[in-house]
Specification:
about 220 residues; single chain; two-stranded antiparallel ribbon; 6-stranded antiparallel beta sheet; Helicase HerA central domain-containing protein; HerA_central; P-loop_NTPase; about 10% helix; elongated; alpha+beta; HerA-like
């Protein structure tokens, strides 16, 4: 739990062409802690009960509020080594200051696990960009993504299908192979540049094969 005095500002601040909200939900922050920086994400911002009425505008009254926020702690960064460590080895203390993380720092931390001395210029997949900084692309190596079991979860309309289509498009750039099981026929538009495997017949000629559809209802 932290105090976020700038969260009550009506408009965000701008430093060197970068928008700084100073306490918005979803914002990434860095907490100073002696010789270790703690990286986290603001997941909740609220007002104490005593300040809830002071946010209403009044003539001649500025109304000082003290919003508080809850931060999800994600990683440690020892300042001496500069190596991002997953999890936490230390925790914030009272009076530690909280800073908004620069977009390039967020990118650097997100891609830290795939940087090695052996691969100076690895093949990467461009997954997304930061919401307010389209020029800050977040990339990940195929080994980090496909080297383990991965699930894309979410409710209706949150972009699950878009994410899968993005992964397929990115892997195609590097001539990689992807097997896509599509029981609902949602990705039928990939027919122009995807190879469809047909079942039945023999391998003597293309005309001897038949494209087979597996009904979604049979999966239940």
């Amino acid at each position: 739990i932290v105090n976020l005095p700038l969260a009550a500002n009506k408009d965000p601040l701008v430093y060197h062409a970068n928008i700084v909200h100073g306490g918005a939900v979803g914002e990434y922050v860095v907490i100073e802690n002696e010789d270790i920086a703690i990286f986290g994400k603001i997941i909740e911002v609220k007002l104490p009960e005593r300040d809830r009425l002071t946010v209403e505008p009044k003539l001649g009254d500025t109304g000082i509020t003290h919003p508080i926020g809850r931060i999800q702690l994600l990683a440690n960064i020892p300042l001496q080594s500069g190596i991002v460590e997953s999890g936490l080895s230390v925790y914030p203390r009272l009076a530690n200051r909280v800073f908004s993380a620069h977009p390039e720092m967020i990118k650097w931390i997100a891609e830290a696990s795939q940087r090695t001395e052996e691969t100076a210029d690895p093949i990467t997949l461009d997954l997304a960009h930061l919401p307010e900084y389209k020029e800050t692309i977040i990339s990940i190596t195929p080994e980090r993504l496909f080297g383990c079991h991965c699930a894309i979860l979410g409710t209706t309309g949150e972009g699950k299908s878009w994410t899968i289509a993005r992964l397929v498009a990115e892997t195609k750039k590097h001539n990689s192979k992807v097997i896509l099981f599509d029981p609902t026929g949602e990705y039928y538009t990939l027919k122009d540049y995807a190879e469809h495997v047909s079942l039945g017949g023999k391998d003597e000629s293309f005309n001897n094969t038949e494209e087979v559809v597996f009904p979604y209802s049979n999966l239940v």
